[in-house]
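Box S1 | Example of a co-folding query
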Amino acid sequence: MADVIDKYVSIVPDVRQKRLQRENFNVFFHYGLNTFTGKEWGDGKVDPSVFDPDRQNTDQWVKTAKDAGAYGVILTCKHHDGFCLWPTSTTSYNISATPYKNGKGDVVKEVSESCAKYGMKFGVYLSPWDRNHPAYSTPAYNDVYCTQLTELLSNYGDVFCVWMDGACGAYMDGKEKQEYDWDRYFALIRKLAPNACISNCGPDVRWVGNEGGFARESEWNVVPKFAYDIQTIEDNSQKADDGKFAEKGADVVFSDLGSRKFLSRYDNFIWYPAEVDVSVRPGWFYHKSQDNMVRSLDSLLRIYYTSVGGNSLLLLNFPPDRHGLIHENDVKLAKELGKHIDDSRKQLLEIKEIKAPLAEKGHDPACMTEDLYDKKTGDPLSYYTPAEENGIYSIEIRLSEKKKVNRVRIAENTAFSQRIEKFEIYADNGRKLKKVYEGSTVGYNRICVFPKAVLTDKLTLVISKCRKKPYIEFLGLYEDNGVVIRKPRFFRLKQFIHERSYKWFIEKENKKYCKK
Ligand code: FUL
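Box S1 (continued) | Returned holo structure for beta-L-fucopyranose
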């Protein structure tokens, strides 16, 4: 057992991943011909002249993302219909063929410039599946895709993420699916944008497995390598525009991708953090009919606390409308979310005393109260780790006076991998020690929201199961912000049924990837 655990804890993020884990909330903009036709999946035959926003203002989009509390944005530079939002050399099916700015417009440029103006990161979504390009389904399409990547990664400043969608319905056009030259794409991205994470069908960020805004309860970053191979072969991605995909809320294919039991069946592992991608509306693109179906703040908070607060990344979609603006209902929601995040951060309570098992030299318990990191490497400036491995670790935190506390934030230093497997939090309410929370994984960020706030001046975190010993960079208590996380009805049941119905798939994968 010892040597497999050594193997698991030797798997750590690279610098790109560490930085993204710090800036773990970004905004998606789905925009293009679909915005004007009311479609989710365009067929690649729509006349580009329909693209005619009268008040397009990308500053407003990026400001909305910033107001929501995000760190960056990702624009659908080309969705499945093949229409390019920049004047590409690879096809005439692009922004130059539209009335927008008399064919002189470039939406990619506008968004990247707005990002520079507001100090936000800029990312590109470039759909591999292309329903318009005549070269699709032939080897020549790989050249087209690489030229598109080259244009996007050379002319628009720094790019933090290249998002490659696995969705494909080529059969709908009577075509064979493209043999994508992924290795060539990845090498090109590494060369042109060495700081960019390659997400979804890529090696750096794992698609969580659903579009309903659900992360796993126990999200692991160290997973069998097959999780990445599956992304690449797209078995799991959307294959039809039947409006049902996003509804499949509980469709996280495997509820466990990283426990010891699960890992024991495999030999090869990678660091592969999950990203929850979800829209604030039922659709990814803007539809006027959905103006009153924008999520409530409560629904967004459930997503936020279980993704950003659950060791996952969050990519939240705000679709610009036909004027080229984010609709006021969405803007309002973005502001509410941002204010909540801001106010909640300020509720961090000052710790009077923190006691923990004897620390390794230079890594005292007090290090856990500091929340600073190196912007370049993504590593924390300080962290706590016990001197010895002893199975159970109990950390006691005292406040100078009683406060109403409803959440604790814990962060592991991922330079030492992800280690905590089980923990409990107890609060001293003056009469007894009361268990207020229990959880499994922590990873780079776990916000433990208690079912009910508790009035206390002393909390104890007990790490009851851990791979070797823990490395904790942050532990903070927060004053009650009134948040209660409610799982949607029948979530677990739906997940159970789904998992059972995928049993054949799991078996099939296991045959290919499990230890021989
Ligand atoms: C899916 C696509 O088919 C949707 O249109 C959307 O872009 C979403 C983010 O990914 O797979």
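The longest helix spans residues 328-345. Residues 40, 165, 167, 237-238, 277, 284 surround beta-L-fucopyranose (CB under 6 Å).
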